[in-house]
């Protein structure tokens, strides 16, 4: 794109990736992150082929792969340990060139930050105003500082204040009905497989094996929004005490203080546009989705590459909205449906029907369903 400067509001995965893309095509980029320290909080994350291809185009794919572990073995199970579906990571690799890769979220954040000049990051600076001062310039206020730019990228998360300013009539995020607890084990463990999901009535437990031998685990529960536990780890041990190995072992290998707990929200009402003036919404600010397809970060990475690939700002923003809004909103709908048919199911008859259907689905058909989301090819950055 033409132009020379951009302000990216939000220093998460999508914001950093957008900054890298614009920096690679010669722009001066400033990332404004309201957190005063970058503590690299978070558990693990899975990256599918579409996200990895986007990272390749941004120039950081090799570094991310080197810090990740491929997911070749595993699948979906019942609480007693029976298999509903086996994952064939080798078949997926043959189809799209890579298996799904597991990486600590903190490592991914660090690798993305390392791809930017240190002076591009403004930590502890909250964007508190947004103003189009004339047709070619937009101004972001950060306390006593103002930043003028040719483009603003709103990558400030699911509760995006920027989105609220740009689309004040939009209802914002809605609670999905599920809450998630997650952590990385304190020391190496052997979970037996690279990746697993286990579905019980209104509950899911999953793990990702990480390259250093530790494992990330997550537990998703159907609960009212705002539910919290005095001792989250003890509560999970109680709820999952009869579930198959290695679930109890993963919980036993975790420090109580390492457990993170977040309610799962989504943008159930689609945005009418991913752009407004010279501002583009990106990642969760544009299309926050449930995690049931593992596509949240991958869609943000797709956003980032697409944003940087048009010849002019105006044409680029129109192209970005036309390319990203249909796909991002379609993936969000698919993720919501996957949750309703997976972790959120609680009626015994519905669970039995789903489990039977999964056991009868040929592995090739399951792989084709995955490819609908993974088989995305990024545009080239010039």
Jot down its keywords.
globular, FAD/NAD(P)-binding domain, six-stranded mixed β-sheet, 13 helices, alpha/beta, seven-stranded mixed β-sheet
Summarize the structure.
This protein has 382 residues and is of the alpha/beta class.
Please explain how this structure is put together.
The protein is an alpha/beta fold. It has a domain at 5-71 and 100-172 and 269-341: FAD/NAD(P)-binding domain, CATH 3.50.50. Helix content is 35%, strand content 26%. It contains 13 helices and 19 strands. It has helices spanning 13-24, 49-57, 61-66, 89-96, 105-114, 161-166, 232-239, 247-252, 284-287, 296-307, 313-341, 348-360, 363-374, and strands at residues 5-9, 28-33, 44-47, 69-71, 74-77, 83-86, 100-104, 121-123, 129-134, 137-142, 145-149, 151-154, 174-184, 195-200, 203-209, 215-222, 260-266, 275-276, 279-281. Strand 18 (275-276) and strand 19 (279-281) form a beta hairpin. Helix 2 runs parallel beside helix 10 (296-307) and helix 10 packs antiparallel against helix 11 (313-341). The termini are close together.
